[in-house]
TrEMBL record:
The gene is ndk. The active site is at H116. ATP binds at K9, F57, R85, T91, R103, N113. It catalyses: a ribonucleoside 5'-diphosphate + ATP = a ribonucleoside 5'-triphosphate + ADP; a 2'-deoxyribonucleoside 5'-diphosphate + ATP = a 2'-deoxyribonucleoside 5'-triphosphate + ADP. The keyword Secreted does not apply. Major role in the synthesis of nucleoside triphosphates other than ATP. The ATP gamma phosphate is transferred to the NDP beta phosphate via a ping-pong mechanism, using a phosphorylated active-site intermediate. One of its GO terms (molecular function) is nucleoside diphosphate kinase activity. Keywords: ATP-binding, Cytoplasm, Kinase, Magnesium, Metal-binding, Nucleotide metabolism, Nucleotide-binding, Phosphoprotein, Transferase. It comes from the Bacteria. This is Nucleoside diphosphate kinase. Its EC number is 2.7.4.6. InterPro entries: NDK-like_dom, NDK-like_dom_sf, Nucleoside_diP_kinase, Nucleoside_diP_kinase_AS. PROSITE patterns: NDPK, NDPK_LIKE. It comes from Nocardia tengchongensis.
Length: 137
């Protein structure tokens, strides 16, 4: 079955939404195969978001993602990558994420959009290797 790497970003942890988000993941039917609370180093943040290095928001994104602990998880299931992105909602929590999605229900600003999920099998493998070395299959 497919694997995806999910982060509950510092805003989600700080706002006490970890339980709510994990509940939605479990209700969807996705399996939590690995889970941990981590303080993110700048090195890990920069590697994780390497594809955004040239974007204007990169500096503030790195500052945000290292601002407090995140919850990192590997989810498994049939079409896990698309399934998590469906329950997360679009990147912009107001213009793109629909009500009923995690971002649509709980977020206001694009940067502070609560969760990350891998966007392709290649990204999932790369990201699982960063957060859970040796765990990708
Ligand atoms: P993620 O990769 O975290 O799942 P995504 O794939 O929906 O999010 P990306 O376009 O890959 O969105 O952007 C990565 C992250 O960078 C976003 O989740 C958001 O936190 C931040 N971000 C994206 N666009 C902006 C923006 N215009 N201004 C501020 N932050 C942004």
């Amino acid at each position: 079955t497919e694997q995806t790497l999910v982060l509950i970003k510092p805003d989600g942890v700080a706002r006490g939404l970890v339980g709510e988000i994990i509940t939605r993941i479990e209700r969807k039917g996705l399996k939590i195969a690995a889970l941990k609370l981590v303080n993110v180093s700048e090195e890990v943040a920069v590697v994780h978001y390497a594809e955004h290095a040239e974007r204007p928001f990169f500096g503030s994104l790195i500052e945000f993602i290292t601002s407090g602990p995140v919850v990192a998880a590997v989810l498994e299931g049939e079409r896990a990558i698309a399934a998590f992105r469906q329950i997360a909602g679009g990147t912009d929590p107001v213009e793109k994420a629909v009500p009923g999605s995690i971002r649509g229900d709980y977020a206001l600003e694009t940067q502070f959009n609560l969760v990350h999920g891998s966007d392709s099998p290649e990204s999932a493998k790369r990201e699982i290797d960063i957060w859970f070395p040796g765990f990708a299959h």
